[in-house]
């Protein structure tokens, strides 16, 4: 009798890593992704050797080739170098960490996988053989092993564990992207970056970040982040209860704060120009954390539903290690399934749960250290 495929909900870094590792171990898998197959993650993520080195055997690549394929400056022969001294708080970033282009990484991981695009999950219910997946296109699929890898807003988790709460940390963060012509980049940005792909500065308890998304011959895509601790319950820039759809509702006070920043060196002066920011798409981030209770995971496991990555243990965007955690979870979970089957995942949970708890605590401490704000109450 042919082996039933593992059903993976979500084709982000975690789901793709799991699927690719299962493929290497000879275990069939199908991934269901709500988004279309068009490029959707055109930005950089920082990868550490502890997560990407174990991937190399799975992908059949050496480190040099791997970095040259997915680094944000790969098209110009770069390897995604990050200079830790260019960061306010490097955390785990060291000389072998590098800046990777997320879409290129996902494209590499997708090779050979069965990804069902534009297949959003509507709900999950118990069924005779385990659980039934109901997709928005009307499909109903029964499975004895479903892995939720669909992010902090996981529909898989919400269907079966709707009471798992978000933690919202008391920090303000705004983000945006900009395309910079090569001549401007070389004259204003490059002298400060000095070959790194991340640059930060701190003014009081404000942290300003500029990072490279992708370098091309004629244009460079950069991202910026503006962050600080919240100023109490009446802070107009801290809206912990805003809906997900409110991420693009930017208060006028944000632009006022940017205008009042003083002592900016280049390229921060160029990037954090309030008038230019008014013309761009700005996103308001919430520093969310999620950790599903261990007993809840065990109860869902009995139904054949399991979780990995930030669908079960989400860390905030600042100070967090989301991409690295997703890769590590995918590698380790695939080993567990290939050797012990789904029944072994409970033991995997036991081993990983303390690591997940520690990761969330460390990310919260990293945000405090980054802003040097001991008054923030987490």
From TrEMBL:
Keywords: FAD, Flavoprotein, Monooxygenase, Oxidoreductase. Pathway: Secondary metabolite biosynthesis. Residues 5-338 form the FAD-binding domain. Gene3D superfamilies: FAD/NAD(P)-binding domain. Pfam families: FAD_binding_3. GO terms for molecular function: FAD binding; monooxygenase activity. Its cofactor is FAD. InterPro entries: FAD-bd, FAD/NAD-bd_sf. Belongs to the paxM FAD-dependent monooxygenase family. This is FAD-binding domain-containing protein. It comes from Hypocrea atroviridis (strain ATCC 20476 / IMI 206040) (Trichoderma atroviride).
């Amino acid at each position: 009798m042919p082996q039933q495929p593992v059903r993976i909900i979500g084709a982000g870094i975690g789901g793709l890593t799991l699927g690719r590792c299962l493929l290497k171990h000879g275990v069939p898998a199908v991934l269901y992704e709500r988004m279309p197959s068009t490029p959707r993650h055109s930005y950089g993520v920082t990868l550490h050797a502890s997560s990407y080195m174990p991937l190399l055997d799975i992908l059949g690549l050496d480190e040099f080739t791997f970095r040259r394929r997915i680094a944000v400056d790969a098209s110009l022969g770069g390897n995604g170098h990050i200079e830790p001294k260019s960061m306010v708080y490097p955390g785990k970033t060291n000389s072998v960490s590098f800046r990777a282009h997320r879409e290129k990484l996902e494209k590499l991981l997708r090779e050979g996988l069965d990804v069902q695009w534009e297949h959003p999950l509507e709900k999950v219910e118990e069924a005779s053989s385990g659980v039934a997946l109901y997709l928005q296109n009307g499909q109903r699929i029964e499975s004895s092993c479903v892995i939720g890898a669909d992010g902090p807003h996981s529909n898989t988790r919400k269907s079966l564990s709707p009471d798992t709460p978000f933690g919202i940390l008391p920090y303000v963060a705004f983000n945006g992207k900009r395309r910079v012509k090569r001549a401007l980049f070389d004259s204003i940005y490059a002298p400060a970056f000095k070959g790194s792909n991340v640059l930060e500065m701190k003014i009081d308890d404000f942290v300003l970040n500029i990072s490279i998304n992708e370098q091309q011959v004629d244009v460079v895509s950069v991202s910026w982040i503006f962050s600080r601790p919240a100023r109490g319950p009446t802070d107009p820039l801290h809206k912990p209860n805003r809906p997900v759809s409110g991420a693009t509702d930017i208060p006028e006070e944000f632009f006022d704060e940017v205008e009042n920043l003083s002592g900016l060196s280049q390229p921060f002066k160029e990037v954090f120009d309030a008038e230019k920011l008014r013309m761009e798409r700005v996103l308001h981030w919430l520093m969310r954390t999620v950790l599903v209770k261990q007993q809840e995971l065990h109860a869902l496991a009995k139904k054949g539903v399991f979780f990995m990555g930030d669908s079960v243990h989400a860390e905030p965007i600042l100070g967090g290690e989301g991409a690295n955690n997703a890769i590590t979870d995918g590698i380790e979970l695939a080993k567990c399934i290939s050797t012990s089957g789904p029944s072994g995942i409970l033991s995997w949970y036991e081993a990983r749960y303390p690591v997940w708890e520690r990761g969330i605590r460390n990310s919260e401490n990293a945000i405090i250290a980054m802003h040097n704000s001991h008054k923030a109450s987490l």
